[in-house]
Specification:
31% helix, 6 strands, 3-stranded antiparallel beta sheet, NE0471 N-terminal domain-like, 27% strand, single chain, globular, alpha+beta, 4 helices, 124 residues
C-alpha cells in the first residue's frame, strides 16, 4: 500500500555538524540540505509559531546554533535538540519536506523580516 503524497517518509536523515546542515532525502529525487539556523528559526514549536495566526515570533541570533541530537518520534517526526536548549518542536515528515521544498522562499522571507526589524529598531 502506497502512502499518500501528503505523508512522505524520509529515506535518509543525516546530521552534518561540521557543515551545520541536516540532510533529508525523500526517495531518489528529493534531497535537501537544511541549515541548522534555518531549522531553528522555523521550528514548529508554539514558542516560535505561537498558538494561532499572527502570533509567530521572529527568532534572532541563531547563526551559530548547533543541533546536538535528532530523536525519532514514532513513525511520523523527529525532535531536533539545539544547543541553545530549544527542543520542543516536532518536525513531522510533511513539515521537513515543506521546509526543504520551500527553503529559498522561506529563507528570503525570514531575512526580509530581520531587515525590517533592524530598520525599525534603528529609527530609520
Amino acid at each position: 500500500m502506497n502512502k499518500p503524497a501528503s505523508a512522505p517518509t524520509p529515506t535518509e536523515i543525516r546530521l552534518r555538524k561540521q557543515s551545520r546542515v541536516l540532510e533529508v532525502a525523500f526517495g531518489e529525487a528529493e534531497h535537501y540540505s537544511l541549515p541548522f539556523e534555518y531549522l531553528r528559526v522555523h521550528s514548529p514549536s508554539a514558542e516560535v509559531q505561537g498558538h494561532g495566526p499572527g502570533q509567530e515570533t521572529l527568532v534572532l541570533g541563531k547563526q551559530q546554533v548547533m543541533i546536538t541530537a535528532v530523536e525519532p518520534i514514532g513513525q511520523y517526526a523527529v525532535r531536533l535538540v539545539f544547543d541553545d536548549g530549544h527542543d520542543t518542536g516536532l518536525y513531522t515528515w510533511k513539515y521537513l519536506r515543506e521546509l526543504g521544498a520551500e527553503h529559498a522562499t522561506r529563507w528570503a522571507a525570514y531575512l526580509q523580516k530581520v531587515r525590517d526589524r533592524l530598520q525599525s529598531g534603528s529609527g530609520t
